[in-house]
Amino acid sequence: MSTDSVDGGEARPRIEVTEDAAEQALSLLENEGLDDDEAGLRLFVQQGGCAGLSYGMRFDDEPEEDDTIYEHHDLRVFVDPASLKYIEGSVLDYEHGLQSQGFHVENPNVVSECGCGESFRT
């Protein structure tokens, strides 16, 4: 589901995934032996970190009933309603670098982050 609206024509919150991030996640899904037709990457927000909130990611076999499901570059991304309000409009990317490598969330709702970049406040 990668449309901009839900039933009734109302605007749907957006979460984007870069092609590189999708390729990395799909490779990891395959290594875990999960079916990428049903399984996906869960992106969530949890309490914690010095700035108050932190991102979490894990693979789930299938979405929960109340999840919003996004599909980008064949990757399914599951976001629960509580997390969606904090990460609406975000872009999930994958960074390759000498100092850091891994998934990174570019979140337009962040007003401050901790020094290490692991937690944030909206």
Mean pLDDT: 83
Structural class: alpha+beta
DSSP strand tally: 9
- The backbone outline, from C-alpha atoms, is globular
- Beginning-to-end CA distance, first to last residue: 26 Å
> pLDDT under 50 segments (min length 5)?
1-9
Helix content: 10-25%
- What's the SSE pattern? EHEEEEHEEEE
What is the helix tally? 2
The major β-sheet equals: 6 strands, mixed
> What is the radius of gyration computed over CA atoms, rounded to a whole number of angstroms?
14 Å
Spatially, the strands of the biggest sheet line up as 4-5-2-3-9-8
Fraction of residues in β-strands: 35-45%
Give a short synopsis of this structure:
The protein is α+β, with helices and mostly antiparallel strands. The chain is 16% helix and 35% strand.
Describe this structure in words.
By secondary structure, the protein is of the alpha+beta class. The strands form 2 sheets. It has a 6-stranded mixed β-sheet with strand order 4-5-2-3-9-8. 16% of the residues lie in helices and 35% in strands. 20% of the residues are buried. It has helices at 19-31, 81-87, and strands at 16-17, 40-47, 53-60, 68-72, 75-79, 91-95, 102-106, 112-113, 119-121.
Topology:
Layout: E1 16-17, H1 19-31, E2 40-47, E3 53-60, E4 68-72, E5 75-79, H2 81-87, E6 91-95, E7 102-106, E8 112-113, E9 119-121
Characteristics:
six-stranded mixed beta sheet, 2 helices, disordered N terminus, 122 residues, three-stranded mixed beta sheet
